[in-house]
Amino acid sequence: MIATLVLGVATATVVLGPGLTVVGSACVVGVLALRRHNERRATQQAIDAAMPDAVELIVMCLHAGLTPAQAVTELALVAPRPVRHGFQATAQRLHRGAAFGEALGELTAHCGRTAVGLVSALGTAVRDGLPLAPVLDRLTDEANAERRRAGEAAARRLPVRLSFPLVACTLPSFVLLAIAPAVLGALSTLQGTAP
Question: In the prediction, which pLDDT does 75 show?
Fold first, then answer.
């Protein structure tokens, strides 16, 4: 890999000169960094969108009578794909004998800030022996509020996203159907009266 890179830079230096090679290398590095940033952002957005569903699944598992550790293990199999890896890592840590609170750290490590509410609520309930009913209600309310906020944000972005198709598709058809016949009619009238 490094030999190929060195060979490519040496060839570019001979063919293009050192100035263009530096500029081209900087452009390539910038494009790669931008692509990596966009991939990370898209991954985090997918996790943010999937976490409310995962919270709902945890609540259903806990209402069905599973313990929090069993619910996390179950979600390692059925959680939405963007967050499944975090639940799988947590379940693996539980199977290796880690305490539940420590194993939940894996969920935060893999899913980021989105999982903090779920991790803190479950960890506090298990650690302090609190009843899970109020925790479940709070988790459900937070998941629904998060889903509502995400929907409202998407609704606010919709007019901006629709403006391009509106302008690109509707305006040319308006010009062709409304303005072009009037201009052609005016031109034919002018040609008919010209000497």
Answer: 93
